[in-house]
Amino acid sequence: MMTELNQPAANEPMTAEMRLSLMIERHRAIDEELTDLQAHPWGDRLLIQRMKKEKLRLRDGIERLKDELIPDLDA
């Protein structure tokens, strides 16, 4: 069941494709935020460091999900 905004209902489980899409979207958003923060020399270095770690964690998760979704060609 989909709501009016083409979003899944709260009680509907997320598919791997949906999780992947959300992770990619969040990764892009963090990248944009980092670009803005790094443009200022007085930016919050601790926040930038945390965001970079989150971005790396998301990248790893995205790669894992892609591996799950794409069948192994050697199998």
Please explain how this structure is put together.
- This protein is mainly α and 75 residues long.
- Helices cover 64% and strands 0% of the residues.
- It has one domain (16-68).
- Helix 1 runs antiparallel to helix 2.
Looking at this protein, list some descriptive labels:
75 residues; mainly alpha; 2 helices; extended
Please give the structural blueprint.
Elements: H1 16-38, H2 45-69
Helix pairs in contact: 1-2
Describe what is shown at a glance.
The chain has helices spanning 16-38, 45-69.
Mean pLDDT: 85
- Total number of strands: 0
What fraction of the residues are assigned to beta strands by DSSP?
under 5%
Proportion of residues in helical segments: 55-70%
Low-confidence stretches: none
Number of helices: 2
Note the run of SSEs as H and E. HH
For the report, how would you describe the main beta sheet?
A: none
Radius of gyration: 16 Å
Name the overall outline.
Answer: extended
Number of domains: 1
Distance separating the two termini: 35 Å
Q: Pairing-aware structural class of the strands and helices?
A: mainly alpha
